[in-house]
Fold these 2 entries.
Entry 1:
Amino acid sequence: RKEVEQDPGPFNVPEGATVAFNCTYSNSASQSFFWYRQDCRKEPKLLMSVYSSGNEDGRFTAQLNRASQYISLLIRDSKLSDSATYLCVCPLISSGSARQLTFGSGTQLTVLP
Amino acid sequence: DGGITQSPKYLFRKEGQNVTLSCEQNLNHDAMYWYRQDPGQGLRLIYYSQIVNDFQKGDIAEGYSVSREKKESFPLTVTSAQKNPTAFYLCASSPLQGALDTEAFFGQGTRLTVV
């Protein structure tokens, strides 16, 4: 099993729709999680951090379910500008307490007019 | 302005040549990371480092080497042993704050093409 797995996508939704992505992780010791947005041929940029049960920022809501080991990202009232690839990130503690940031493979979202 | 800088943005390499990608940050971050991204794929970890003069292999370290002689710098060398080096390379850094993980900040990436 991969350490971080995301919905395969792609998701094609009309403007104004609500869309949700899930991401499962295997390391139960992870304390915090992140959602990044990546536009085509650009670097990923932080969208939201999730340190406890959830986080909300405008149209975006991230939730964490520790019992089932997954995080979700909900986008309400989708805009054309939301079209991008969304990556979830789970920091892992490897040997010697070194932390590595493991990314999911990403979920592609296209918002259609 | 604080940030993380990768250079060059585009790089062309002949087969059999080593090439070094630069990554510099002035954010005073302890941790630095190198990722590789292939078209339509996620990010795969090559190497990471938490302190000067120490680094660990990621999932796909074969054919790559790194150094961390200064806190600000984490160059990646793509060696001739890397059989399929054409990809988008991303460098990232993050602070370490005890047990709480913080987000990573990325450079703009280097697009390497073997010709």
Note: Chain A has no helices and eleven strands.
Entry 2:
Amino acid sequence: AQSVTQLDSQVPVFEEAPVELRCNYSSSVSVYLFWYVQYPNQGLQLLLKYLSGSTLVKGINGFEAEFNKSQTSFHLRKPSVHISDTAEYFCAVSDRGGSARQLTFGSGTQLTVLP
Amino acid sequence: ETGVTQSPTHLIKTRGQQVTLRCSSQSGHNTVSWYQQALGQGPQFIFQYYREEENGRGNFPPRFSGLQFPNYSSELNVNALELDDSALYLCASSSTGTSEAFFGQGTRLTVV
């Protein structure tokens, strides 16, 4: 079984400031890691994913995340946020050995970018 | 290439009724998963269908059931609706051998 903990439920930040959204996971098996974004009244859009290889992964909209196996973390970062980044962000894991993409999600972090 | 589409976008049902939600998967995808997202929470895995068979189920009671059709589209059925079933229901399609699931816009179900 897997679990995902998103340590901050809400993160307010001023426009053009850097931001980090924290994610820790627990699993007895190797996992794939994902970050999704959800805008109001919409579905989920994939920001980035870690499958293997380099622990620093880059995604869409200038976001990046770093996989840290020893700390079982996958924190999301952006060096300079925009008003349009205001949304709910979800960290998720899936079992590498399982069938396609049964995702376990965290409870989400609401990022609010202030002018 | 069309994306994942869900219907209806919103609906209101009365406690005890039954509901059917529909999902058309992305072209070329053979696997469909359903998730329930209660207000203020992350999505919870309900079940997954692959080649018209249930292929994994989360911690949901049997009154949540599904179907997958030969064209890979899918239905989620919920019987004996309860107030706590009020949520956004998300469908995601994927293909075996790939790592990414693509989500639809969701169906907002309100049970009164």
Note: The mean pLDDT of chain A is 92.
